[in-house]
């Protein structure tokens, strides 16, 4: 067997083993038999013993899987090492591997890079002129011609797919849309599809469908099931919403997909097979990968750059196999159909001429509320005009079909909130059926037309392609940044409403707290006092509110103000409820005597509990606010005192609170653990207090702080550079070595078209340096736990912090900003990092926190086109070094010049940008943003289209997204004894992320948890091209240690 073939088999086998863990219903919760004991155990002891046995079983499963994969991999590469490209990597002295041999995972990554084939969108962008000439009837395209005999041997097979796009919030709230429109659409659907078996429809948004289902009787539910079984109604994608693909994190994308699919499976017993994404503002291969993993084989997308659409239409590549950048095999391929024209509405879907297609949108008949902008109204189909109408429509169908490789033609029929009224159903279905009958009666036209679903279309497509021996091209890459016309690039929404984008991640992290193993205990508890069902309902509500916010007009920040408030209220309410779930579960787990459990959380039961939501042992800093400048923290179980620091709580930049103080202490948290600490008042000398130095050029500040040592240097000392350092990093004047931070403003254009919620249309001057009338106040704090420098400006405060930790948290620079631009008009605030990295025009951003994507800054494109979404990470890289920015929230990012990386922090815009919203973005709030900056050395030239974060960057990003959670109540002498909870004996391998451990709904009892959970693991690709200075102890398998290969410059 050839090496490449063997490699494919190995990778495929490893992938299969990993994916067996995904969506897996763990047998470990199926009533494991307890060992015999001479002493009868109580029900609580049995529950806890059973839980621990099941966790042990999970550990064994993971260890066995890792051992098998590692053994196969090492066996292969020990024989083929000389044939595989690799880079040297240091390993620990206890490892059996030579330092000259690269890690197997790195070798696999190199094979992925070398095996790229097919169309790469990066190369398409290099090729296209982006000149946008007038294409005639198809303004953004070209004239399409045909002879007329192309279908003589194989008739044109037309499938018309009725649909209604229902936004779960945009101009109205989710609830108002449902009451005003959506429920009427679905009610009419039930009636009108039942009237004629030839009628069909697709539906995407399960959030609406489930709400409607809950409000109909059993007879109507049976009618729905019959329509689904008959193929007249197809649920497409199956997600809770039609999700945004730029800002959403893959955890939330997958969770909303699971929520929808589980609902469909439970109530209808079917699985979606095709995806439908016609309105997200750009498309990500991460979503394609998730859909393929969820069992879908096909998908439809719409919003891609008009120049890309034109190019694909010319090459007949509008239908392609979408493959992941990092995958050298077809296992991740999904068949994708890209709509060729401007929009998914009727005028832009039947063919290239919208003036003609609009005449076949029978909702716009004269006398109705809608009309055609081209001033040629539709006509009802009659015997007198049917020939002329049929031939006019057929001409559009034929022109459109020339853009594809098969004689099967897909034509959508619908728009936003269509088919509300019964009359529209009759008009659309009645007139089109008359046209289809005419086609059938005239075989010389060589066309067969019918209503259909996506399954009907893709089934016919694959049959025709297979019969003809035709294969679709392979495509890699993403479809950002989207432009719908001219230079109108939709890069504004990458940042719009950043307060809510940050709240989205907060709920995501909070939702992950109670779905981790420590709180799955509720599925094992038989105690009637434990509120199992209530907790599960809170979990479900939290999942669904997070899922709702992934809608492409929610997390994007492109809804009207009242709708945004409704989203925010849902998010915040869920955060509070999920905290109650975790607190209640933690209470039960930590109690030695379970009889003392009470679920009334108004009664204090603990002093301070810290939960580690990650699968890794971690060193962290825990912060709480106390009412005394003296405090002591001890481990409740061992009595060991913790390293602490008392810092001021600054009510104003130079005035410290006299009532509240910040207590920070260092903890080492085992994976997924709950650890108990006691916090007590102590003498003012018991804890190290931070020392402060204040600077302000020309005007020393008056500082009010009675409990802390404060100095304000004057004279030459005041101009001396500021410096901070820990074991790994050194800052001078708030800057990491060779990395500077700048702040800038963008304005908007002065002409009619201006920036808005969707569009970024900067002024001709570009970015202007931030300036302030008054010099900033600079506050430097130094302490044993952390040291930082805070610069206070009029519109923001900027803090850089070093943690004095031995673990990976001490090897990066923490950057935080608090922004308030509510006083500004048509301005956008940007943070720019300036480094010495010679990255040319290339940089990398993540896609949904799932993978990295190379970007190329192109001078032929306008400035706004070179901004891309950053969900969680971006980096610059050259042959010698890499600068990585890891983010706790999604924002727009660009590298407009070599060595520079800029992030849009907030935007305030007074006007609508003519994309339907009807308002600007003026509901800004005081908004925090958080990052970690990592600089590392690399020992080989970067620049490949497939790159990954280092293991160290992955771990820092994990800690950033999932900080420890604290639960604090005042101490009480009646508090029962608590013990730490340690569900795992050791960390998972550092390249394996426990994405989710999801309680499933009981199949027999609605809104109650079952004894099953779904385990989702993500094995992350990582970069190995850098050299470590301090070993990062991470296990790869039970037999092999792997260090992170990143060196932080001092």
Automatic annotation (TrEMBL):
UniProt KW Membrane keyword: yes
GO biological process: mannose metabolic process; N-glycan processing
Catalysed reactions, semicolon-separated: N(4)-{beta-D-GlcNAc-(1->2)-alpha-D-Man-(1->3)-[alpha-D-Man-(1->3)-[alpha-D-Man-(1->6)]-alpha-D-Man-(1->6)]-beta-D-Man-(1->4)-beta-D-GlcNAc-(1->4)-beta-D-GlcNAc}-L-asparaginyl-[protein] + 2 H2O = 2 alpha-D-mannopyranose + an N(4)-{beta-D-GlcNAc-(1->2)-alpha-D-Man-(1->3)-[alpha-D-Man-(1->6)]-beta-D-Man-(1->4)-beta-D-GlcNAc-(1->4)-beta-D-GlcNAc}-L-asparaginyl-[protein]
Molecular function (Gene Ontology), one example: carbohydrate binding
Keywords assigned by UniProt, alphabetized: Disulfide bond, Glycosidase, Golgi apparatus, Hydrolase, Membrane, Metal-binding, Signal-anchor, Transmembrane, Transmembrane helix, Zinc
Cofactors that this protein relies on: Zn(2+)
Pathway: Protein modification; protein glycosylation
EC class of the enzyme, as a word: hydrolase
Domain of life from the UniProt record: Eukaryota
InterPro entries found in the cross-reference section: Gal_mutarotase_sf_dom, Glyco_hydro/deAcase_b/a-brl, Glyco_hydro_38_C, Glyco_hydro_38_cen, Glyco_hydro_38_cen_sf, Glyco_hydro_38_N, Glyco_hydro_38_N_sf, Glyco_hydro_57/38_cen_sf
Main subcellular location: Golgi
Compartments in which it is found: Golgi apparatus membrane
EC number(s) per entry: 3.2.1.114
Membrane topology: Single-pass type II membrane protein
Stretches assigned to the Glycoside hydrolase family 38 central domain: 488-571
Record carries keyword Transmembrane helix: yes
Gene Ontology CC annotations of this record: Golgi membrane
Family in the record: Belongs to the glycosyl hydrolase 38 family.
Biological role stated in the UniProt entry: Catalyzes the first committed step in the biosynthesis of complex N-glycans. It controls conversion of high mannose to complex N-glycans; the final hydrolytic step in the N-glycan maturation pathway.
Protein name (record): mannosyl-oligosaccharide 1,3-1,6-alpha-mannosidase
Organism: Cyclopterus lumpus
Gene: man2a1
């Amino acid at each position: 067997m050839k090496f490449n073939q063997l490699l494919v088999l190995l990778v495929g086998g490893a992938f299969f083993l990993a994916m067996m863990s995904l969506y897996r219903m763990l047998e470990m919760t199926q009533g494991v038999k307890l060992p015999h004991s001479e002493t009868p155990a109580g029900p609580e002891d049995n529950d806890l013993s059973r839980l621990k046995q099941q966790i042990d079983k999970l550990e064994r499963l993971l260890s066995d899987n890792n051992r098998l994969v590692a053994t196969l991999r090492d066996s292969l590469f020990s024989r083929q090492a000389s044939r595989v490209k690799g880079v040297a990597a240091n390993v620990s002295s206890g490892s059996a591997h030579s330092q000259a041999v690269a890690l197997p995972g790195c070798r696999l990554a190199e094979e992925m890079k070398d095996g790229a084939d097919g169309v790469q969108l990066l190369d398409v962008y290099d090729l296209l002129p982006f000149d946008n000439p007038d294409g005639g009837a198809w303004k953004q395209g070209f004239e399409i011609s045909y002879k007329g005999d192309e279908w003589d041997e194989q008739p044109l097979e037309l499938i018309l797919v009725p649909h209604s796009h229902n936004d779960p919030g945009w101009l109205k709230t989710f609830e108002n849309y449902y009451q005003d429109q959506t429920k009427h659409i679905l009610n009419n659907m039930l009636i009108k599809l039942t009237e004629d078996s030839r009628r069909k429809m697709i539906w995407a948004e399960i959030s609406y469908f489930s709400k409607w289902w809950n409000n109909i009787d059993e007879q109507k539910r049976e009618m729905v099931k019959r329509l689904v079984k008959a193929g007249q109604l197809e649920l497409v994608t199956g997600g809770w919403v039609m999700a945004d693909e730029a800002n959403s994190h893959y955890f939330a994308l997958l969770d909303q997909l699971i929520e929808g699919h589980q609902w469909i499976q439970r109530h209808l017993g079917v699985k979606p097979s095709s995806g439908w994404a016609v309105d997200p503002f750009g498309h990500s291969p991460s979503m394609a990968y998730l859909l393929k993993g969820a069992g879908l084989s096909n998908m439809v997308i719409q919003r891609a750059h008009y120049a890309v659409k034109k190019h694909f239409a010319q090459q007949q590549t509008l239908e392609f196999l979408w493959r992941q950048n990092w995958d050298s095999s077809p296992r991740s391929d999904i068949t994708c159909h890209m709509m060729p024209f401007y929009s998914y509405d009727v005028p832009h879907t039947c063919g290239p001429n919208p003036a003609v297609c609009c005449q076949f949108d029978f909702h716009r008949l004269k006398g109705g509320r809608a009309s055609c902008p081209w001033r040629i109204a539709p006509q009802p189909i009659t015997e007198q005009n049917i020939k002329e109408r049929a031939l006019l429509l057929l001409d559009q169908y034929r022109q459109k079909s020339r853009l594809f490789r098969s004689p099967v033609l897909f034509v959508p029929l619908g728009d936003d909130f269509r088919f509300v009224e019964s009359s529209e159903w009759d008009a659309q279905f009645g007139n089109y059926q008359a046209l289809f009958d005419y086609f059938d009666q005239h075989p010389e036209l060589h066309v067969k037309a019918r209503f259909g679903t996506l399954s009907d279309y893709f089934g016919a497509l694959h049959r025709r392609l297979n019969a003809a021996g035709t294969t679709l091209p392979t495509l890699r890459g993403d479809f950002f940044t989207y432009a719908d016309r001219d230079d109108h690039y939709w890069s504004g929404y990458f940042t719009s409403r950043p307060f809510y984008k940050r709240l989205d991640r907060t709920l995501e992290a909070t939702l992950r707290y109670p779905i981790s193993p420590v709180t799955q205990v509720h599925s094992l508890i038989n105690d009637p006092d434990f509120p199992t069902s209530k907790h599960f309902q809170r979990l479900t509500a939290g999942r669904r509110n997070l899922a709702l916010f992934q809608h492409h007009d929610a997390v994007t920040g492109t809804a009207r103000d009242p709708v945004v408030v409704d989203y925010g209220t849902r998010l915040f309410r869920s955060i509070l409820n999920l905290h109650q779930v975790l607190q209640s579960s933690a209470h039960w787990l930590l109690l030695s005597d379970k009889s003392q459990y009470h679920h009334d959380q108004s009664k204090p039961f603990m002093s301070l509990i810290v939960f580690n939501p990650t699968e890794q042992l971690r060193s962290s800093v825990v912060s709480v606010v106390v009412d005394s400048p003296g405090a002591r923290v001890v481990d409740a179980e061992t009595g060991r005192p913790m390293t602490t620091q008392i810092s001021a709580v600054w009510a104003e930049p130079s005035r410290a609170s006299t009532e509240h103080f910040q207590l920070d202490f260092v903890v080492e948290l085992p994976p997924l653990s709950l650890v108990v600490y006691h916090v007590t008042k102590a003498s003012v000398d018991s804890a190290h207090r931070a020392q402060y130095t204040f600077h302000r050029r020309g005007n020393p500040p008056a500082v009010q702080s009675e409990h802390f040592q404060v100095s304000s240097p004057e004279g030459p000392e005041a101009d001396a550079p500021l410096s901070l350092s820990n074991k790994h990093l050194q800052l001078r004047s708030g800057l990491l070595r060779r990395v500077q931070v700048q702040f800038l403003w963008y304005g908007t254009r002065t002409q009619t078209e201006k920036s808005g919620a969707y569009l970024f249309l900067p002024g001709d001057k570009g970015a202007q340096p931030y300036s302030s009338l008054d010099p900033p106040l600079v506050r430097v704090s130094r302490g044993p736990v952390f040291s930082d420098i805070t610069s206070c400006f009029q519109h923001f405060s900027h803090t850089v912090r070093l943690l004095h930790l031995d673990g990976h948290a001490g090897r990066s620079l923490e950057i935080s900003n608090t922004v308030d631009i509510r006083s500004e008009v048509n301005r956008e605030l940007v943070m720019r990092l300036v480094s010495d990295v010679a990255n040319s025009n290339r940089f990398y951003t993540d896609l949904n926190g799932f993978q990295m994507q190379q970007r190329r800054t192109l001078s032929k494109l306008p400035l706004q086109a070179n901004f891309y979404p950053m969900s969680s990470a971006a980096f610059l890289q050259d042959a010698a070094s890499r600068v990585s920015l890891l983010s706790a929230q999604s924002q727009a990012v660009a590298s407009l010049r070599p060595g520079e990386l800029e992030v849009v922090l907030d935007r305030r815009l007074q006007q609508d940008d003519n994309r339907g919203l009807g308002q600007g973005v003026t509901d800004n709030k005081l908004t925090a943003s958080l990052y970690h900056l990592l600089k590392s050395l690399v020992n080989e030239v970067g620049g490949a289209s497939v790159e990954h974060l280092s293991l160290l960057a992955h771990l820092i990003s994990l800690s950033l997204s999932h900080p420890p959670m604290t639960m604090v109540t005042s101490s009480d002498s009646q508090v029962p004894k608590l013990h730490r909870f340690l569900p795992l004996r050791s960390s998972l391998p550092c390249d394996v992320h426990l994405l989710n451990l999801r309680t499933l709904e009981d199949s027999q009892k609605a809104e109650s948890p079952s004894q099953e959970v779904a385990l989702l693991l993500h094995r992350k690709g990582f970069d190995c091209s850098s050299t470590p200075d301090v070993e990062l102890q991470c296990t790869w398998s039970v037999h092999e240690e792997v260090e992170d290969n990143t060196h932080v410059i001092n």
